[in-house]
Design brief:
single chain, 444 residues, alpha+beta, Helix Hairpins, Adenine-n6-DNA-methyltransferase TaqI, Chain A, domain 2, 3 domains, five-stranded mixed sheet, 11 helices, 28 strands
Length: 444
């Protein structure tokens, strides 16, 4: 599907905008609206007015780049004069002026519906459009790839990327007449809405595949591969009945538990020493290498213990049911613990058991600011353990079956990537006049 071009174009004077349709004007954002900041943070001060506010994540995580009032908006306090001055209105555009990476700055979301006295955080910048401009169109302009590339090129900072007010003011837009702005925005609302729904369908498919994948693992490591095997009660509610010839034991009967030292060692990127492993590596089947190391000297200074190859490393805080096997000696951080298998259990089989036991860890975890499972929780993990030969057969079966799920999941992710690329290209083409969407019937 393709769309026609405009009949005539003229040079925009801006390299990355290229030619724009005749009748369009190239304007800096400062000529299109007014920017302001609020200075309102999340700290509550006694005696000030209690208010709700939009914050950075509301803008950044808004899938359709529109903002609506919700009871979940953050509460804070502000002086009454600030509430009056910095309350947002329908049509205001909120932008993210700083972030840890350049591609996360300059995101824009339009306020679509809001009651009185809702303010915006000091982490955001507000843009109020001037008359004769369409807020939805301008939001698409801010989020279009060319403008985002401009933001990435002018931002400053090392540990945190920042856009100053003038960076926003100098952003160049290609502006058509108001009626055409509205037509383009309505077109993009329709077309991006269709794309977003297709993306949502692929995400739902990925969640379904994830659930089915988990079910296949759980069934294999608790009931085995023989549907006719005699069964017995395991005595553990979530394990249910297990094959009669399997042993039901606590993990400490078949593995030793490894708990890392609390002191974080000094890390290096020079390849000196032993690999440093964190939660990031838990979604892989095996940890072969990382990009951080701990030298022998640093390990001694911190009193750090080395985990020998062949262990099953698992998360002990936050998200449970994540596990990997280290194929080399490693040092693990405090969010992880490990099972060192004895000769009664295969590491790969044990890994699948740990993955299937997420609910167990959730139930026994202790929560303060984050849920944590201690060494005893790992030691007392109930396991249904078949003979070694059967463990190996189950592992081989799961490798074949899970590869199918992984293939389907990868295909769904590729579809999402292509849809998002099309979405980005469509927005950029429409707001720079590379396609004419005034006639809603595209060429095929």
């Amino acid at each position: 599907m393709s769309f026609p071009s405009y009949p005539n174009y003229k040079p925009s004077g801006v390299e990355w905008l290229g030619d724009v349709p005749e009748g369009w004007e190239v304007k800096r954002a400062r000529a299109v609206g007014v920017f302001s900041s609020s200075g309102i943070d999340k700290k509550s001060v006694e005696g000030e007015q209690a208010v709700q506010m939009f914050n950075y994540l509301d803008v950044y995580k808004s899938p359709a780049k529109t903002l609506r009032y919700s009871d979940d908006l953050m509460w804070t306090t502000a002086a009454a004069s600030k509430v009056v001055e910095h309350s947002v209105s329908t049509g205001d555009i909120l932008l993210t002026p700083s972030s840890e990476t350049a591609d996360d700055i300059g995101h824009a979301a339009r306020v679509e519906s809001v009651p009185p006295n809702i303010v915006f955080s000091y982490h955001l910048l507000r843009f109020k459009k001037r008359e004769s401009h369409d807020a939805a169109f301008l939001t698409y302009c801010f989020n279009a790839a060319p403008v985002r590339s401009y933001f990435e090129s002018v931002c400053t900072g090392t540990t945190r990327k920042v856009l100053v007010r003038d960076d926003f003011k100098n952003a160049p837009f290609a502006i058509p007449p108001l009626a055409e702005q509205t037509a383009i925005a309505e077109f993009l609302d329709r077309e991006t809405g269709k794309i977003d729904e297709l993306v949502a369908e692929q995400r739902r498919l990925m969640e379904l595949l994830k659930e089915k994948r988990q079910a296949v693992i759980s069934h294999a490591v608790t009931q085995g591969l023989n549907p006719h095997a005699p069964m017995k009660p395991s005595g553990i509610e979530w394990l249910g009945d297990v094959p009669k010839h399997w042993a039901v034991v606590c993990a400490k009967r078949v593995a030793s538990i490894f708990v890392p030292q609390r002191n974080k060692p000094e890390l290096n990127t020079d390849g000196d020493g032993v690999f440093w492993v964190t939660m990031e590596q838990m979604r892989s089947e095996e940890v072969e290498a990382t990009n951080l190391w701990v030298s022998e000297t640093a390990a001694k200074v911190a009193g750090t213990r080395v985990l020998k190859a062949g262990a099953v490393i698992a998360s002990c805080v936050g998200t449970f049911g994540l596990a990997t096997i280290n194929t080399a000696d490693v040092i693990i951080n405090q969010q992880l613990q490990a099972f060192i298998p004895h000769n009664r259990i295969e590491a790969r089989f044990l890994r699948h058991c740990v993955i299937s036991a997420g609910n167990y860890f959730d139930q026994i975890g202790t929560a303060a600011t984050i849920t944590y499972v201690n060494q005893a929780g790992f030691e007392n993990l109930p396991l249904a353990v078949p003979p070694l030969e059967e463990q190996r057969a189950i592992v081989a079966f799961l490798e074949t079956e899970l590869a199918k799920f992984d293939t389907l999941t990868a295909e769904a992710q590729r579809a999402i990537d292509l849809l998002q690329e099309r979405r980005t290209a469509l927005i950029s083409a429409a707001v720079t006049g590379q396609i004419d969407v005034r006639n809603p019937s595209p060429k095929t």
